[in-house]
């Protein structure tokens, strides 16, 4: 089923065009553009889908949402339920839950943010990576591109549904190197055997939303499932530090050391903490 993605950027191109427009419709995942016919009242996509110009005008004014056209109808890439989830038209998109973005976007973008995190642990060919909080899967995809096998966990089925829609997440569901587990990392990690992973990338929601994923109990499980010499990156961010003098990273580092990690250090460019499990040598 063909989906044509439109953000305010493509909508503005369509409104400026006469007769024919060339636009990208995969949220800039590729540089490919398609021809869209433009008339006084409609735009028409290659599959014959026609969208009223008045809808295109509304999209052009909305810089905070992603839309897609399917079978002639226009949908917002969003899910409303107990929480409100949506794709945000950054390049690549991030996901926003109740107004909180899941990637850093100020002064960077979700892809650069992902690469900064993955570069701290440098997964290699043949290694096994545990990605504790999948989100849109950019960390898992980047790790798999480097040759690692990845097990990635996502608690929220709504997040998985948005990942299925997002063109930038396609490799999650296509790569033979990536396995997705739906569930809570706090519980699922207990089912893994000792020393199962070479690398863990732990990118949890903020502490106020998932404090158990910052607990010493969870850190003990991460230590257990890492192989000797295994590397950990733990995204922490710096919530509250600017205004209340809090240092969440300091508390994380102290708990990681208590459960046995060594060479624990801040990684400022990725707003997180690196740690190493001692080797047997």
From TrEMBL:
One Pfam entry for this protein is Methyltransf_25
Q: Which domain of life is it from?
A: Archaea
- Alphabetical list of InterPro entries matching this protein: Erg6_SMT_methyltransf (IPR050447), Methyltransf_25 (IPR041698), SAM-dependent_MTases_sf (IPR029063)
| Gene3D superfamilies from the UniProt entry | Vaccinia Virus protein VP39 (3.40.50.150)
Per UniProt, residues of the Methyltransferase domain are 129-230
User: Which PANTHER family does this entry report, sorted A to Z?
Assistant: GERANYL DIPHOSPHATE 2-C-METHYLTRANSFERASE (PTHR44068:SF11), ZGC:194242 (PTHR44068)
Its protein name is Methyltransferase domain-containing protein
């Amino acid at each position: 089923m063909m989906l044509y993605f439109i953000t305010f950027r493509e909508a503005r191109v369509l409104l400026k065009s006469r007769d024919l427009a060339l636009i990208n419709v995969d949220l800039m995942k590729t540089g490919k553009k398609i021809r869209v016919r433009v008339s006084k009242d409609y735009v028409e996509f290659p599959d014959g889908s026609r969208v009223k110009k008045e809808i295109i005008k509304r999209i052009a004014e909305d810089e905070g949402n992603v839309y897609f056209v399917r079978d002639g109808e226009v949908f917002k890439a969003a899910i409303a339920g107990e929480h409100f989830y949506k794709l945000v038209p950054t390049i690549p998109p991030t996901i926003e839950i109740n107004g909180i973005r899941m990637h850093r976007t100020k002064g960077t973008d979700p892809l650069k943010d992902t690469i900064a995190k993955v570069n701290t642990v440098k997964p290699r060919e043949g290694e096994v990576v545990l990605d504790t909080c999948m989100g849109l899967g950019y960390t898992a995809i980047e790790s798999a591109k480097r040759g690692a096998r990845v097990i990635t966990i996502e608690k929220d089925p709504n997040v998985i549904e948005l990942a299925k829609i997002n063109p930038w997440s396609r490799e999650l569901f296509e790569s033979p190197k990536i396995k997705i587990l739906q569930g809570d990392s706090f519980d699922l990690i207990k089912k893994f055997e000792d020393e199962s992973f070479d690398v863990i990338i732990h990118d949890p929601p903020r502490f106020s939303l998932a404090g158990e994923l910052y607990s010493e109990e969870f850190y003990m499980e991460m230590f257990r499932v890492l192989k000797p010499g295994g590397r950990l990156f733990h995204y922490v961010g710096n919530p509250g530090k600017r205004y209340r003098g809090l240092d969440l990273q300091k508390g994380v580092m102290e708990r990681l050391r208590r459960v046995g990690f060594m060479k624990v250090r801040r990684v400022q460019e990725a707003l997180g903490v690196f740690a190493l499990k001692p080797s047997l040598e």
